[in-house]
Every structure is written in C-alpha cells, then in structure tokens.
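At this stage, I wrote out one protein, both as residues and as discrete backbone shape codes, and that material follows here.
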Amino acid sequence: MRSIFLRFFNGPLFVLLVAVALAVQSSLFNSYPLWYFQPDFVLIAVIWCALRRTFTEGGILTLVFALLVETHSGAPRGLFLSIYMSIFLGIRVFSRFFVISQFASLLLVTLGAAIAWKILVLAFLAAFDLAGAQSYHFLITVLPFAGIEGLTGYWAYKALDAFDRSTTKSERSRQLIEDELLVEEGI
C-alpha cells in the first residue's frame, strides 16, 4: 500500500521539489556577481524527465516546469515553454540514437543541453530582433553556465535517482527487501 501511495505522489512531489528549487535559485542568485553562476534546476529536471520518464509523463512534467518558470520571469509568454520543450524533445531524439547509460554520459548531455539552452534563447530572441543585445551576454556566460550545470547536475542526478528509487519501487524489489528482512529476523 505504501509503494502505491508513493508511486502515485511521485509526479506531484517532483513538481514540488522543482518549485522549491526554482524559488531558491531565483532568490539566492539575484545580485550582480552571482547571477553568472546561477544553476538552472529546471533544466536539470527537464533532462531527467527526457531520459528517465516516459514520453507522456516527461512531456507533461516539462510543460508544468516551463509554466512555473514563466510565472517567475518577465520574458515573452511562451519563451521558456518553447525552449524547455525543444530541449526535452531534442534529448529524447538524441537518446534514441545514442545510449546514455553511464553517469558521465549523463553529465555530458547536461553540458550540451546547457549550451543548447543558451543558443535557443538567442534563436528565439532573434525572432524579436533582440538577439544583438544578448549576444555579448551569451559569449560571457555560456561556459560558466554549462560548468555550473554540470556541477549541479552531479549532485542533482544522484538525489533524483534516490528520489525515484524511493518513490517508485517495483513489486519484485519490494518482495526481495521483505524476504531479506525476514531472513535477518530469523523467520
């Protein structure tokens, strides 16, 4: 019963975790020198959804995450929705052709997605003739942003893996744990 309850609340708890991380990131990194080192926890969550969730569940979670970001920003409506969905769909396509099974390859995907995120911001702003003002900012921040995403992703992916393991246990793994406990108790 407990595993069914945890499995049911996996998605809502994941959205709550991302909302708290978004609130922390937008309040801690809002001054001049710190915003160059601001991690994007939503991008990490989108990458996790693209690689570790089904297409439907990951797509819905990505839409919810993008809407959370758009409520915290003054960017044109739909900008973050378009960018995060592009990242989600791009990683889904990329994972169909390349195996991303090791932790190091997951971090390389994170670095690539961080650079792609910055490029997509420029591409979408070019449609509004605002890319010229952001190109200098892009050149200054693309490498620190990718590095911070890689460092943050290292710990975030371990935490998300533990979160998923604790909230989505299969019947087989639950039975193995119960059998192991029975053996330890001598029953």
